[in-house]
Amino acid sequence: MPGNDRFEPHAARAMASMFDDVSGRYDLLNRIMTLGQDRAWREAMWRGVPDDARVVLDLCTGSGVSLPGLRRPGRTVLGVDVSFAMLEAARDRHGGPGWSPRLACADAFRLPLRAGAVDAITVAFGVRNLRPRATALAELARVLRPGGVLSVLEATAPPPGPLRPLHHAWLRHVIPFAGRLSPDPTAYRYLSESIFEFGAGPEFERDLGAAGFRVEARTAFLLGATRLWVARRTGEAGRDAPGPSGPVRNAATSPNGTGEGGGSATERSAEARAWLGVAAITSSALTLALGWALGVWIKSNAELPLSGPQRAMGWTLLVAGLVVFGVRSVYYALRYAAAGRGR
Description:
By secondary structure, this protein is of the alpha/beta class. The chain is 46% helix and 15% strand. The chain contains ten helices and eight strands. It has an eight-stranded mixed β-sheet with strand order 3-2-1-4-5-7-6-8, sandwiched between helices. A hairpin with a 4-residue loop joins β6 and β7 (226-233). α6 (164-178) runs antiparallel to α7 (186-198) and α9 (265-300) packs antiparallel against α10.
């Protein structure tokens, strides 16, 4: 990555330029590259924010996709980003009177907020762009009141396991290829490289602990391709190490996304079953879509101007995706049925 100024420390200008260039199709490409799952992941991030949080900062807000779920009567929501073009899109979509979010163009390392000014902070797919990470987390700890919550959603590098090669191929080849639909394809090569640089998750948790945060919940989505951390600012930097790692929970087993039960046991059971149903339907839809895509591929791949390795990759991604999501569909359907019998 030498020579790429986007990876330099405090690269606010380079980041702003990149996101200004891709702002027009950014959300559409995100939806494609996350297989339509990003909305559900953001909902889990929103649930990490306490209901009584009066001032909430959405850092790296981009076009404001994360803002609607944070809005509450009586709550001030702040959307901050370094890209002015992205903020213009956020203003057009979410601006207005009343409790509309307040938007500001600012550097994440120099937030225009006093110490302890906010009750909660959310960051969706932005933390990996902040270098050095320790300095960025120190600034978040500064503006977050003691006891405040930090909810971070981020794409992560492939963890060890049987699906690592598929995940690796998706990040290394498919994302840059999809970036050709963008006005700046280099932005999606950067996206791929930045995910590998960010790591699989343990590295980020160590940095959270060093900055004075305690991880209270961690959730994996899409077999670990994306992860959510809900952490609390509990003391001075370096005093609070992250909690025990343990196995990362699947999203469907943590419906409130925070690790803290809300409502009665019956309500939590009903919500968990609803999430299992959504997961089963989503996986089934993706399985059908992949099956259709595989059928089209079988009929027409010989006519496509592809090299041998590209053709092999196409077969691998479609067949592996069909198998993975087929198995997931059956798994969630069985769990949904079992949850219904247990009620």
